[in-house]
C-alpha cells in the first residue's frame, strides 16, 4: 500500500543553487537540457533543446547513421542550450549523460562528448538511466505524488511503481516496445517519419472507421507486441485492403491504412490500459503517470483517463517537450543523484545497451 | 596513427576520453594509446586488413568528435569562469 506514514525525504533543500547539464542520445533524438535546483526547493528548466534524426518514409534508423547524426549535431545543440539558459559550462555542477539503455553507437558518441566536457571544465560526470530520467521528469513536471508509471516509447514498454528506493517493474513487453510496433507498421504503409511515425499514425487513425480484429496479447501483467505487428502487416496483403480508399461506391467490404492505424492503436492502447490497471489495483494507487514518446498520444491519454476516472483516479502526462526523449530529463535525474553524493568516475563512464530500471538505487526518495 | 593537438593537456584529454571504451573485438584487435608532448599516438594490431580498416575508421570518427568538442569549448574552458 502506498505509505500513509509520512517518510522524510532523504533529499534535503540545497544550501545554494545547483545547475546540471544533461545529454541524451539513446535513440534518434539528441537532446541537451539545463536544469537548476534552488534553495527554496524549486526545480527550473533553464533550457531544453533537441534535434531529431528523421529518416525517409519506409525506413527506420540504424545505429551507425544515428551515431553520425549525433556527432554532427551535439555541439550545436549543446551550445544552443547553454545560450538559451544563459549559463556557461563553468557554472554547472555536473555533466549528466545517458548511460543506457539504448542503441550502442549513439550512446557512445554522446558519452565521448560528455567525457571531453567533463575533463575540459573539470566537472564530475553522472551516468543516468534513461527510463529513470523519463520518470523523474514526469514526476517533476506533473507533480504526481506516487503514481503507477506507464513508460511507453519506441524502445521501452514498462509498467513501473516505486517501492523502497527502486523503480520496480510490474509488467513489461515480452518482445518489442509498443512504439517500435507502431513505428514499424508506419514503415509498412510508408507513412512519413516527420515529426515522428507515431504522430502520423495517430493522425491517420483519426480518419479510420473500421475496427479490425487483432490479437489481444496480454500475458498476466505483461504484453506481447510482435504478434500484433505481424497480424496488422498481414492485413495489408489481404484482398480487401485498399491503400487509396474504396475503388468505387460498391466497394464496401474493404479497409484502408487509416482503418488499420485505428485498429492497431485501439488494440495496443487497450492492452496498455489493462496492464496499468492491474498494477493500480494491486498497489491501490489512484494516479497514473504516462511517460515516454508514446505518452504524447492523445488517444492513449484519453483511454487511460477513462479507466482512471472509473477508479476515482487521474492521469498525469506531459507534452512533447518532455515525453519525447530529451536532455532535461537526464539533467534532472542526474542532478538528483548527484545531490545524494553519486557520481560516475571516468573509467566507469561506459554505456550499456541493457540497463534495467530497477538497477538504479533511487537514493533521493524515501 | 599520430594526431597532433594544440597542447599536451588536450592530447591527454583525448587519450583519457577514448580509452574508456573497450574495442568491440578485444580478442582480435590490440590497441595502445599514448601521449608524446602534444601528440596522441594510437597503435593498432589486427589479424586482417579489413579489421584494421574498421578499427581505424571508428577510431578516427571518435577522435574527430573529441577534436571538434575541444575545438568548440577548449578556449572557453581555459579562459576560466568569466560571466
TrEMBL record, chain A:
<feature type="binding site">
    <location>
        <begin position="151"/>
        <end position="155"/>
    </location>
    <ligand>
        <name>substrate</name>
    </ligand>
</feature>
<dbReference type="GO" id="GO:0002949">
    <property type="term" value="P:tRNA threonylcarbamoyladenosine modification"/>
</dbReference>
<dbReference type="InterPro" id="IPR043129">
    <property type="entry name" value="ATPase_NBD"/>
</dbReference>
<dbReference type="InterPro" id="IPR017860">
    <property type="entry name" value="Peptidase_M22_CS"/>
</dbReference>
<feature type="binding site">
    <location>
        <position position="202"/>
    </location>
    <ligand>
        <name>substrate</name>
    </ligand>
</feature>
<comment type="similarity">
    <text>Belongs to the KAE1 / TsaD family.</text>
</comment>
<feature type="binding site">
    <location>
        <position position="130"/>
    </location>
    <ligand>
        <name>a divalent metal cation</name>
    </ligand>
</feature>
<dbReference type="GO" id="GO:0005634">
    <property type="term" value="C:nucleus"/>
</dbReference>
<dbReference type="GO" id="GO:0005737">
    <property type="term" value="C:cytoplasm"/>
</dbReference>
<feature type="binding site">
    <location>
        <position position="183"/>
    </location>
    <ligand>
        <name>substrate</name>
    </ligand>
</feature>
<keyword id="KW-0012">Acyltransferase</keyword>
<dbReference type="GO" id="GO:0000408">
    <property type="term" value="C:EKC/KEOPS complex"/>
</dbReference>
<feature type="binding site">
    <location>
        <position position="198"/>
    </location>
    <ligand>
        <name>substrate</name>
    </ligand>
</feature>
<feature type="binding site">
    <location>
        <position position="151"/>
    </location>
    <ligand>
        <name>a divalent metal cation</name>
    </ligand>
</feature>
<dbReference type="InterPro" id="IPR017861">
    <property type="entry name" value="KAE1/TsaD"/>
</dbReference>
<dbReference type="Pfam" id="PF00814">
    <property type="entry name" value="TsaD"/>
</dbReference>
<dbReference type="InterPro" id="IPR034680">
    <property type="entry name" value="Kae1_archaea_euk"/>
</dbReference>
<feature type="domain" description="Gcp-like">
    <location>
        <begin position="45"/>
        <end position="331"/>
    </location>
</feature>
<dbReference type="GO" id="GO:0061711">
    <property type="term" value="F:tRNA N(6)-L-threonylcarbamoyladenine synthase activity"/>
</dbReference>
<protein>
    <recommendedName>
        <fullName>N(6)-L-threonylcarbamoyladenine synthase</fullName>
        <ecNumber>2.3.1.234</ecNumber>
    </recommendedName>
</protein>
<keyword id="KW-0539">Nucleus</keyword>
<keyword id="KW-0808">Transferase</keyword>
UniProtKB/TrEMBL annotation, chain B:
<dbReference type="GO" id="GO:0000408">
    <property type="term" value="C:EKC/KEOPS complex"/>
</dbReference>
<dbReference type="GO" id="GO:0005634">
    <property type="term" value="C:nucleus"/>
</dbReference>
<keyword id="KW-0539">Nucleus</keyword>
<keyword id="KW-0819">tRNA processing</keyword>
<dbReference type="GO" id="GO:0070525">
    <property type="term" value="P:tRNA threonylcarbamoyladenosine metabolic process"/>
</dbReference>
<dbReference type="GO" id="GO:0005737">
    <property type="term" value="C:cytoplasm"/>
</dbReference>
<dbReference type="Pfam" id="PF09341">
    <property type="entry name" value="Pcc1"/>
</dbReference>
<dbReference type="GO" id="GO:0008033">
    <property type="term" value="P:tRNA processing"/>
</dbReference>
<keyword id="KW-0963">Cytoplasm</keyword>
<protein>
    <recommendedName>
        <fullName>Transcription factor Pcc1</fullName>
    </recommendedName>
</protein>
<dbReference type="InterPro" id="IPR015419">
    <property type="entry name" value="CTAG/Pcc1"/>
</dbReference>
<comment type="similarity">
    <text>Belongs to the CTAG/PCC1 family.</text>
</comment>
